[in-house]
Every structure is written in structure tokens, then in C-alpha cells.
Amino acid sequence: MAWNWQRAKLSNVGARMVNIEVSKKLYPFKGSYLPLAHKARMHYLDEGTGNTLLCLHGNPTWSFYYRNLVSSMRDKYRVVVPDHIGCGFSDKPGDDAYSYRLEQRVQDVEELVKVLNLSDITLILHDWGGMIGLSFAARNPSLVKRIILMNTSGFPLPDTKAFPIALTLSRTPVLGDLLIRGLNAFAVSASWIGCKYKRMSPDLRKAYRAPYANWTNRRAVHRFVQDIPLSAKDPSWPTMAFTDKHLESLADKPMQIIWGEKDFIFDRHFLAEWRRRMPHAEIHSYPDGGHYILEDLGEVAIDLMKDFLNRHPIAEPRVYH
User: Does the pLDDT value for residue 297 go beyond 90?
Assistant: First the structure.
């Protein structure tokens, strides 16, 4: 089948020029770019008007994960979806120009929110985007009104959960570089095993992997895995610990959790921890759902979100005369 392709040439900080191809049929958006304080440009979608839905992706995905949500929600909401630095259409700087740590990721989101003047935010979070978004919320609770979580975390690895061997190997020096940056094993395997109920088509798998086509472009995928904080020895542990400590301050906000139980990382152990920490959260758990729950459930997940948002409206600000 012949596709029309959208090309983006990225001006990388500390890296060579690269091309990314994405089907316009699958990703029919014209994004914008924000030069952040550290000079790298963040690509983001900003579609529609109304209350803000800020959607943060994880690893190894990009804003493409939210494409159907954007198309479905922009008639009623302002939907903002950034590509984290090193991901999607955002710049892919070298390690000398960008830290690739959780702390910097949170600062990037804070800068985007400030520049776009976002308030009364509904966070929609998946995978590593959950830790980033919940860290942002813990620091800026007055800006966040509602939270929707999908197969993610905002706390350390549960005591009942063993760290997956695949991630351990991916964090091993030399071997991790070979697997993730050389063979693209993380992005390729995720596109195959991320869906359980509704398998991805070849075109979808190609689109998910498009930003990570070579060694240079896979830097962020590897750095995300390396940055997972497992103990106080890890650089991002303090940021994660702060978020973990302050999660309780978010418990009064309307929260919806949509979960695929066949996720090989964010599985029943993480879901049980969410149930314990957020007893008032509305939870929809699917035994046959995988990690990419928006792909597995399709419109079902988006309809759940629409219903949740309708039942928990954000009050209009009072005007005093």
C-alpha cells in the first residue's frame, strides 16, 4: 500500500541531522516546537480548545501513542502532547548537552506548561510519562485538577515485584548498548509484545519505531531504561522519592486508572499498589490488555476517559464584580 509520508528534519543539539518518516494517514498533525532552556527543541501537539488535557508518553513510544485520543478529544478539549527530548520529533541531543534524567524531564514539562500558560490541567499518563507527570503534579498540585493513569508508576518498584531480567540486561554496560542502541531490541520488542488483545499491524509497528531508526536516535530509549531508580544509589532516586512521598497530596483529585493486566512490567503488583495508595480511584482493569492499552482497547479506553471527564467537570472560575 502506498502511503503519503510526513518528513521532519531535526536540528539536533550535539548530534547529526536525522530524518523521521511517519504516515500522514496515521499521524495527521502539524506540531509545534519549543526551544527549551537547555537549547534542545521540544516538539508538541496543541490541538483544540477548552480545558487542557496534558498527555505524557513513556518509553519507547512518543506522541504517536495519543494520536487517536487527540483526534477524538480536540473538539471539546485543548489536547497538548509533547515528545520528550530524544523521542518522536523532538531534538535528540548528545549526553554533553542534555542529562536524560528524570529531574530534567520534569523541568521540561514545567517549562512547557509555563510557556503555554496551561492551568486546570487534566494529566493523562502512560508508562514513564506517569513518573514524569506525577512528579510535575506533586510539585505543582494547584495546576492539576484530574488525573488519568495507564500502566504506570509514581513510586518505587513494589516489594512483591522482581525487576524484569530484560531490563536488567538492558542496563548492563556494553550489552545494553548493543541490545537497545545497536539492535533496537527494546523498541522492536515493545511493538510486538506491547499489545495482547489487539496486535499491532505492520504499519503501526513501523510508525512506533520510526523515531528510533539508528544508533543516535535510540539514545533516549536507552537512557530511560538506565535512569529507572531502583535504589538510593541511582541519580533519579531523590526525584522519585519526593514524588512517592507526596502522592498522598494528589489523592483528593478525581483519578481514573485504566490497566492492561498482561503488561510484563506494570503488572498486577503495580496495580495492587495503586489500589492501596489511591482507594478512591476509579479503576478499569482488563485481564487481556497489554502495555499499550490505547491500542489494545482502542475507542473503549477513550470512551471511558470521556465519561470520567464528563462526570468530574472542572468548575469555571468565579468572576467577582
Answer: yes
Cβ-based neighbour number of residue 233 at 10 Å: 7
At 71-97, the pLDDT tens digits run: 999 999 999 999 999 999 999 999 999
Mean pLDDT score of the chain, rounded to an integer?
Answer: 92
Using alpha carbons, list the distances in angstroms from residue 29 to 66, 84, 205, 209. 11, 17, 19, 18
Q: Is the pLDDT confidence value at 242 over 90?
A: yes
Neighbours of 141 (CB within 10 A): 14
Residues 6+ apart with CB under 8 A from 147: 122, 123, 125, 133, 134, 137, 250, 253, 254, 255, 256
Whether 318 is covered by a domain: the verdict is no
In total, how many domains does the chain have?
A: 1
> In angstroms, rounded to a whole number, what is the distance separating the alpha carbons of residues 169 and 182?
14
> What mean pLDDT is predicted for residues 44-51?
97
225 domain residue, yes or no: yes
Among all residues, which ones are annotated catalytic?
127, 263, 291
Burial class of residue 139 in the structure, from the number of CB atoms within 10 Å of its CB (0-12 exposed, 13-18 middle, 19+ buried): middle
Q: How far apart are CA 16 and CA 8, in angstroms?
A: 14
- Answer whether residue 320 is part of any domain: no
- Quote the cell numbers at residue 130: 506517569
- 220 pLDDT band (50/70/90 cuts)? very high
- Specify the higher pLDDT residue, 301 or 198: 301
User: Does residue 319 sit within a domain?
Assistant: no
Residue 32 one-letter amino acid: S
User: Domain with 61 in it: what CATH number?
Assistant: 3.40.50.1820
Q: Which residue range(s) make up the domain with 165?
A: 5-311
